[in-house]
Amino acid sequence: MKMQIDRRHVQNFDWLLLGLVLLASLIGVITIFSATRPLTGSAHHSSFYIKQLAWMFIGLIAMGAVVKIDYRQFGRAAGIFYAIGILLLVFVLGMGKMGLGAQRWISIGGISFQPSEVFRLAYIIMLARYLSFLKPPIGVRDFLKMLPLLALLPFGLLVKQPDLGTATTMGMVFLFLCIARGMSKKLITALLIFGLVSGPFLFDIIWHGFLKGYQRDRIVAFMDPQADPAGIGYNITQSKIAIGSGMVLGKGYMKGTQGPLRFLPENHTDFIFSGFAEEWGFAGCLVLLAIYLAFLLRALDTARHAKDDFGALLALGLTFMFAFYIFFNIGMAMGMLPVVGIPLPFMSYGGTAVFSNYIAVGLLINIRLRRFELFY
Amino acid sequence: MSHDRNAAKVAAVVIILAFFVSVVRLWQLQVIDGRDMRKASEGNRFKVIDIYPPRGIIYDRNGVPLVKNAPSFNVSVTPRMLRKGDLEQIAALLSLSPEDVLQKIQAAAGSLEPVTLKEGLDFNELAQVESRLSDFPALHVDVNIVRDYICKDVASQLIGYIGRINSQEEEDPEYNDVPKGEPVGQWGIERLYDQQLRGVPGKKLIEVDATGREIKVMGEVPPKKGKDITLALDINVQMAAEKKFTSKAGAFVAIDPNTGEILAFMSKPSFDPNAFVNGISAAEWKQLAGDPEHPMLDRVFQSQYPPGSTFKIITAIAALESGAIKPTDKLNGPATFVLGGHVFHDWKKGGHGMLDIKHAIIQSCDTFFYQVGLKTGIDEIAKYARAFGLGRKVKLGLGYEASGLVPDTAWKERVYKCPWYPGDTVSASIGQSYVLVTPLQMARLVGSVGSGGKFMPRLSFLKMKPGQQPELDPVGLPVSSDTINLVRAALQGVVNEPDGTAYRSRSSLVQFSGKTGTAQTVDGGKRYDSWFVGYAPSDNPGIAFAVMAEQTPEEGASAAAPVAKAAVEAYMEEKEGKLAPGALLNGVSSPSLANAAGAAAKIVNGAPASGLGANAVRAGGRQ
Question: The domain at B48-232+592-610 falls in which architecture?
Answer without folding.
Answer: Alpha-Beta Complex (3.90)
